[in-house]
Amino acid sequence: MRSAHGSMSLGFTLIELLTALIILSLLALMSYRGLGAVLDAREYVKQETEKWRRVTSFFTRFERDMQLAAPRPVRAISGTAPAWDGRLHAMPDGAASPRLEFSRFASAEGIDSARRIGYVLNEKQEIELWLWPGLDVAPGMQPERYPILTGVVTFELQYLSADRLWMNIWPDMMAGSPIAAISSIPQAVRVRIVLMSGEEIERVFR
What we know:
Elements: H1 4-8, H2 14-67, E1 74-76, E2 79-81, E3 84-90, E4 96-104, E5 115-121, E6 126-131, E7 144-150, E8 152-160, E9 166-167, H3 178-183, E10 188-195, E11 200-205
Antiparallel strand pairs: 1-2, 3-4, 4-5, 5-6, 6-7, 8-9, 8-10, 10-11
C-alpha cells in the first residue's frame, strides 16, 4: 500500500502551477513582441523598397528624356518657345521651383512620338511629367499631367553651358544671337531632389 505521503507527492502544488503559468505568459509575451518587431521591420523594408523604386524610376525616365532632347524651337501661343526652356516659377508658399520644358525626339523603338514635355514640382510636393501631343503647341492646348514622384520637398535643376558654367535658367539670351540661343540645349543637367523623409539625391546627366 502506498502511504498518504507518497500519494500527495505525485501532484503539483499551487505555487508550482503559478510559476509555470508565469513562465508560459512571459514566453508568450516575448513571442508576441518578437513577431510584432518582425512585422514592423517587414513593413518598413517594404516601404523603403517602394520609395527607392519610385526614385530610380524617376531618374531613369528623366535620363531617357535628356538623351532624346532635340534642339528644335516650337511654335507656342506667345510666339516661339526655346528648344530648351528652363526657368523658375512661384510656388504657393512664396518659394521658387524650376519649371522645365523641352523638345524631345521620338524614341528609336518607335513607342513614342516627337513631342514637347516638361517637369514641374507642384504644390502637392509631387514632380509632374507634362506631355503635349506634339512639338508645336496650338492655342488653348494644355499638357496632360502625371505625378511621377511624390513626397518631394526640393526639386532643383541646373544647366551646363558650352563655357562649362552651371546656370539656373536656360537659355542664356545674352550669350550669342537670339536665334542660336533658342535652339541651344545644355551640355549636361544637374538634378537635386530632397525627399520628405530627409534623403537628398543629386545626379548629373549628359
